[in-house]
Amino acid sequence: MLGRVLSAASGLLLGACSVFGVRSGTEEPRFTVVEQSGEVEIRDYAPRVAA
Length: 51
Known about the structure:
By secondary structure, this protein is of the alpha+beta class. It contains 1 helix and 2 strands; from the N terminus they run αββ.
């Protein structure tokens, strides 16, 4: 029973982190901001391979 509760709690916590944009250790590719309007950015990324 305790295992199920802990599993559900950890799942909810991880889900909440992804909803609110908490990312730890995630690399983000380099970019340049081409244009910005308020909180919206137009970004230019260098070519890359995604696998």
